[in-house]
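Hi all, long-time lurker, first post. I run a small reading group and we've been trying to get comfortable going from sequence to structure in the token notation. Rather than ask abstract questions, I figured I'd post a concrete chain and ask someone more experienced to write out its structure so we can walk through it together at our next meeting. Sequence below, copied exactly:
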Amino acid sequence: MDTLRKVANLLSRAAEAVAALMLGVMFCSFLITILFRYVLNRPSGSASELSSVMWLWLVLFGAGFVLREREEIRFDILYSAVSPAIRRLFMVVIASVVVGLFLLSLPAVWDYVTFMKVQRTAYLRIRFDWLFSVYVLFAGGVILRYSWLALRALRGHDPMPPVLPGKDD
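-- Answer (accepted) --
Happy to help. Here is the structure in token form:
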């Protein structure tokens, strides 16, 4: 079990590093866009497009693999007012619905993404199937995360333990 935790921690750090790299590329391309547009008076469509691509990938990759459960937005007023057993029930029901909907949509998403190989972006000529493939990764990450959360709730883990003052956990 300790090895599994080490592997999970390594994968989590790697996902954070990939997201940080995407943020760095997006920021540099944003600066290049400003330089070309306002200093050189020659708008750079490719730098602007790269910034948009990195934004899309950063948001979906980050939400699928970097965002932690405690960082997600939820209706805490109701959730924190009920007992841990009811919170576990909420988690199992909500996770089942989320996993079910993502699994249900996955074949259509796959068809759409693979169909988009016929088009390319305007400046960088990136095939749209490569561009939108991040959504398939995102969906897979959400399916795995919510399956794991449901399994933990079924095993008796409180999805929202009380936060102690001064603790960041």
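A couple of things your group might point at:
The chain has five helices and no strands.
The chain has two domains: 1-67, 73-162.
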